[in-house]
Model the fold of this input.
Amino acid sequence: MAIEITPGWMANLDDEDMVFIKRFLLASGSLKEIAKQYGVTYPTVRLRLDRLIQKIRISESAERDPYIATIKRLAVNEKLDFDTAKLLIQEYRKTKREERQ
Done:
């Protein structure tokens, strides 16, 4: 049975991420095998997997607050440094608290 609707957690993944997931599954989850296939070290593959996990978690939380999810996604994709992302989220939350008062 083919997937007719892309799950929300997959919607924000790029083609490289999907290829990585496919290779990971075909390698039975062996990070050593994936490292060989990509010609990189095990820690490099582990970092890639950790970032992919973060992307999926962020997309799952996007429904609660899309702005924060966008900032987190930019940080995970290294489009925005972590400290700046943290500052933006803090200021956003501060503004939201003030609006409620």
Observations:
- Residues 24 and 34 are 7 Å apart (CA to CA).
- The domain at 13-57 is CATH 1.10.10 (Arc Repressor Mutant, subunit A).
- The chain has a mean pLDDT of 86.
- The radius of gyration is 17 Å.
